[in-house]
Amino acid sequence: MKYKDYYAALGVPRNADTDQIKKAYRKLARQYHPDVSKSAGTEARFKEIGEAYATLKDPEKRAAYDELGRRPAGEEFAPPPQWSHEYASDAQSFEDIDLADLLDALGRRHRTARGPVHGRDYETAVRISLEDAHRGTTLSLNLDDEEGGRTLRVTIPPGVSEGQKLRLRGKGGKGRNGGTDGDIYLHITLTPHPVFRADEHDLYFDLALAPWEAALGAEVEVPTLDGPVVLKVPPGTRSGQKLRLRGRGLANGRGGRGDLYGAVHIDVPAALTERERELFKELASASRFNPRAVVAKEKAK
User: Fold this and answer.
1) Domain 197-270: which topology?
2) CA angle 210, 213, 215 (to 5 degrees)
3) What is the model's pTM?
């Protein structure tokens, strides 16, 4: 089914009242009546104007049309899923019906069965920072709906995670005939962080260690969302290990927190002083450690 922008056809805003719609229709109908204008496309334009007016002058047909939201004219679309069981006996019939015919059918259905109709539900993506996911935040949400657009102040509670869906009950489209208002569903996405990677409520970061820190053990300062803390590195720490700081991850919304993991990699100086070179040569002569033999032994196991 192709979308038709009836408001654009009449040149009126989406919040136009009945008098504005009627006035616009009368003006355009006189201008494009086939008996008045002989320009190419006049007949099609006149039909489009009449179709738009027939829909927008009828409160129930207009409400059903507004449920579709805003779309580019001519765009292929499918009606909202609830229409398949509220207004049609066969959902597949939507594929072969014209929008005007569908709205006519809806209007007849409404006039013969005025039961409660649940308002339209909306879904939208919200991108927030890790810090906001951890501590909670309030943001402004711009929503295009059948009322022509509005701005909501939305509170995001602490503890949300990537991919989570929040429900704002009763904040969607208005119900009809005593039906309940629709809901808004927020799909949470997290902005990439320069330091941390999130896995649900756990956080990961890259922990660079000097060879002597990894071999001898050390106490190193590492970042958290709440500021730097000291992490104890055990002797013999190897590259690829993950060192855990329990309860230093993201808030989980239930009074607890995930964990923070430092993913270890061993770094070496890019340039050595003469003394450093001597010490490394001394270590190479004295040490019997062969990392390749260790790896081969582990693989054999």
Assistant:
1) HSP40/DNAj peptide-binding domain (2.60.260)
2) 110
3) 0.59
